[in-house]
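Work through this:
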Amino acid sequence: MKNGNMLPRLAGFLILGIMGVSVLAGAAFAEDIPLAVVDSQRIAEEYEAARDAQEQYQKYLRELELEVADREKELTALAEEIESQKMLLGEAALATKVQEFEKKRADYFEFREGIDQRAEAEYKVKISPILDQIKTIVERIGTEKNYGLIVDSAALAVLYINADYDLTNDVLAALARGDD
């Protein structure tokens, strides 16, 4: 099952954005366009909609895990039942039980194979809209304030940041206002 933690995904999302503008970085520094940072971890922790979405996604993953455990218990119980009754059951009854077990086993493996896709679909429903909103706000602020590059400080090792270039408060304020 996938790791349900939104922070690495958010960090990865912002890193991809950084990589996309890395070609522009040299030109940005050459033209003395300022660098800015956003702390995606702090946004994920402080933005209520992000916290709620993460909690809902984690709940969904826990429910999937419980369903897997229930199906495993059911298979184990049926296997034990077949083993304990195989001498008592007639050939036809035993064949029916074995066939039932094989069908449940196939359904279980089909379910297990689809878990990642179901988790990814749920992620897209719960988390992707938040990431899209943050991306839109960061791009808008970057354009409005003429930043050449905005770095996610949670995803990269940063040794020094001038607090004047930290846009996290601006992004949180825009999110609180409901901006897109």
